[in-house]
């Protein structure tokens, strides 16, 4: 807010408004596309390899901006409300930060994957150790699910990931990772702290109301930055498919299997809180923030790890669109149950 004038930085003079009108309309339109635009990103990234080569140097910046936008849009009132009932949040946080990487690590060692394919093992461990994607609450909201619960669990698990990732790197990745486990934890902490600080400054400058008012163009900007990240990561997928189609397809199938296994198992574990809320937590747990791990390791990863990270973008970007019918049925069932409960309560109170 500009002191003495009552304007926010979003309230621009008419000349500037005309200059930015077209980009804002374009971002608003893009933001309105929702899960369709998110799904299209994966195909664009693969179909235009030169775009990946052009954008790969900016992958860290893209990850930082995605983190900033997500922290900037945190609903503090809803956050505090859920933190007053911490049992569910604590359980979901423990599952995604401790349960998932522990099971992935033990399974990989039990099956011999750690020895037979160290690059793939590293990819799976980094995926398991990562916090959920910062875009998970927005995707949950687009699908009509409980985005607030997802957001609170995301915040708590993201706060813990520098420490849990360092722990599991020490347990399972000693000598495999290019940086030491303590250095990994410090880099993760630095990236998260810097993005949180930047988001706090933006919130103070522009105000929460202005950010809420411009939700649609901000959604569009988020999609553009997702395209930058996906293109940078997926730029070599087409050439890898041509060079070794069977291996590439096998890795893609593994990526889809891991994604939907995490979704299904998490939904089953938390089904007692209601299928819709359990499904929302499952969606969050399956959407792992591999970009954060790429930034923390500076991309110094084996080729197989890069390939797996690239192919995980397909389930990450396609699943919200593909799962939309299931989410609608779950939310409709929840709404029907709530309406029936309210009707019963009203009848009883009128007697």
From TrEMBL:
<feature type="transmembrane region" description="Helical">
    <location>
        <begin position="149"/>
        <end position="172"/>
    </location>
</feature>
<protein>
    <submittedName>
        <fullName>Na+-dependent transporter</fullName>
    </submittedName>
</protein>
<feature type="transmembrane region" description="Helical">
    <location>
        <begin position="120"/>
        <end position="142"/>
    </location>
</feature>
<keyword id="KW-1133">Transmembrane helix</keyword>
<feature type="transmembrane region" description="Helical">
    <location>
        <begin position="247"/>
        <end position="270"/>
    </location>
</feature>
<feature type="transmembrane region" description="Helical">
    <location>
        <begin position="290"/>
        <end position="311"/>
    </location>
</feature>
<keyword id="KW-0812">Transmembrane</keyword>
<feature type="transmembrane region" description="Helical">
    <location>
        <begin position="87"/>
        <end position="108"/>
    </location>
</feature>
<feature type="transmembrane region" description="Helical">
    <location>
        <begin position="37"/>
        <end position="56"/>
    </location>
</feature>
<feature type="transmembrane region" description="Helical">
    <location>
        <begin position="184"/>
        <end position="206"/>
    </location>
</feature>
<keyword id="KW-0472">Membrane</keyword>
<feature type="transmembrane region" description="Helical">
    <location>
        <begin position="62"/>
        <end position="80"/>
    </location>
</feature>
<feature type="transmembrane region" description="Helical">
    <location>
        <begin position="218"/>
        <end position="235"/>
    </location>
</feature>
<dbReference type="InterPro" id="IPR038770">
    <property type="entry name" value="Na+/solute_symporter_sf"/>
</dbReference>
């Amino acid at each position: 807010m500009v002191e003495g004038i009552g304007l926010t930085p979003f309230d621009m003079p008419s000349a500037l408004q005309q200059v930015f009108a077209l980009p804002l309309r374009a971002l608003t339109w893009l933001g309105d596309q929702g899960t369709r635009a998110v799904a299209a990103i994966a195909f664009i990234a693969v179909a235009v390899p030169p775009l990946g080569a052009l954008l790969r140097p900016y992958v860290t910046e893209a990850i930082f901006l995605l983190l900033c936008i997500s922290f900037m849009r945190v609903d503090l009132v809803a956050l505090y409300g859920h933190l007053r009932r911490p049992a569910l949040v604590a359980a979901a946080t423990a599952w995604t930060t401790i349960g998932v990487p522990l099971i992935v690590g033990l399974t990989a060692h039990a099956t011999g994957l750690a020895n037979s394919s160290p690059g793939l093992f590293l990819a799976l461990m980094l995926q398991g150790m990562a916090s959920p994607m910062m875009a998970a609450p927005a995707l949950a909201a687009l699908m009509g699910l409980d985005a607030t619960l997802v957001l609170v669990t995301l915040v708590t698990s993201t706060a813990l990931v520098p420490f849990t990732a360092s722990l599991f790197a020490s347990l399972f990745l000693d000598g495999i990772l290019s940086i030491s486990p303590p250095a990994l934890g410090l880099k993760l902490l630095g990236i998260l702290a810097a993005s949180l600080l930047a988001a706090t400054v933006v919130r103070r400058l522009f105000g929460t109301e202005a950010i809420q008012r411009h939700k649609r163009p901000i959604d569009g900007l988020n999609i553009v930055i997702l395209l930058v990240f996906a293109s940078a990561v997926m730029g070599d997928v087409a050439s890898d498919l041509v060079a070794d189609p069977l291996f590439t397809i096998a890795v893609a199938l593994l990526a889809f299997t891991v994604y939907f296994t995490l979704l299904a198992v998490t939904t089953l574990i938390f089904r007692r809180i209601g299928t819709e809320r359990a499904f929302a937590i499952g969606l969050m747990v399956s959407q792992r923030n591999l970009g954060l791990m790429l930034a923390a390791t500076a991309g110094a990863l084996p080729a197989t790890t890069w390939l797996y990270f690239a192919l995980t973008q397909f389930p990450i970007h396609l699943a919200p669109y593909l799962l939309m019918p299931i989410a609608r049925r779950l939310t409709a069932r929840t709404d029907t149950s709530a309406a029936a409960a309210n009707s019963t309560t009203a009848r009883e109170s009128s007697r």
